[in-house]
Amino acid sequence: MTTFLFRFAMFFLLTVYTYTATAQTGNNIKCGMATGYPPFQFIENNQPTGFDYDVLTRVLQQVNQELYLVADTWDEVVNHLRFAELDCVTGMEINPLREKYFDFTIPYYFRYTTVFVKEDSKDIEIVRDLYGKKISGDKHSLTETIWQEKHIKDNFRLIQTESKEQAMLMLANGETTAAIMPRSVGLYLAKQYGVKVKIVQSNYRGTPVAIAVRKGNKVLLDKLNSALQTLLSSGQLDTLQSNYQD
């Protein structure tokens, strides 16, 4: 699929799923998820799915509340929450910048960002080999933070993308030399698109992932934390996560 066709398809998909929801009642929680982040949050066969989506639905079952779902690009979902158009967003990585705007539940797993290149890239074996090269990926990744700490970020030509699919397709089409994304996401998409990849760098520092709520919404935060603690203690989330392993 060409980049143009991919972008057209994603535009159609996002238009359809910007507001996908159950019937609204007084017992629902309006929560957001991204559409292009498999296997964590995505649309498949016209239905929302993924590990983060499954966690959210189980958490709300625990607190006996219905889900009103908003599925959109990641940046739009975050903006919906920031401007009080949502109650929560599932599967958000916790970092200091986001903690200024949102409150977070206890983490329910960790993501490990990874730098992928094509398997046949014989001249790319270590991160230094990517100096001066175009790299696709979304902004504020842990990899980008680590490169900033090591004062090497300016050696790369980073290209921000709206979705992980777009980042992987840019790598597949030769528009970029590498792509940054969580390991599970990269391996899933590479298999999906028939791209043979290898890993140049996989960060040892995992990023905690939680459900984000509007700043100061302690009532909802306490409800979600109680449900998450029950699911974690019972091992239900470990069993669920095993369905999405690499």
Walkthrough of the structure:
With 246 residues, the protein is an alpha/beta fold. The chain has two domains: 143 residues, Periplasmic binding protein-like II (D-Maltodextrin-Binding Protein, domain 2); 90 residues, Periplasmic binding protein-like II (D-Maltodextrin-Binding Protein, domain 2), CATH 3.40.190.10. 37% of the residues lie in helices and 28% in strands. The chain has nine helices and 14 strands. Strands 1, 5, 6, 7, 8 and 14 form a six-stranded mixed β-sheet that branches. Helix 2 packs across helix 8 and helix 6 packs across helix 7. It is globular.
Q: The biggest beta sheet, please? A: 6 strands, mixed
Helix share bin: 25-40%
Number of self-contained structural domains: 2
Report the C-alpha radius of gyration, rounded: 18 Å
CATH homologous superfamily descriptor of the largest domain:
Periplasmic binding protein-like II
What is the CATH topology descriptor of the largest domain? D-Maltodextrin-Binding Protein, domain 2
- Annotation, overall tally of beta strands: 14
Report the mean per-residue pLDDT as an integer.
87
> Separation of termini?
24 Å
Report the total helices. Answer: 9
Order of helices and strands: HEEEEHEHEHEEEEHEHEHEEHH
Oligomer: single chain
Q: Beta-strand level of the residues, as a percent range?
A: 25-35%
CATH class of the largest domain: Alpha Beta
Low-confidence stretches: 1-24
Counting helices, strands and paired strands, the structural category is alpha/beta
The CATH architecture of the largest domain can be given as 3-Layer(aba) Sandwich
Instruction: Give the CA-based shape.
Output: globular
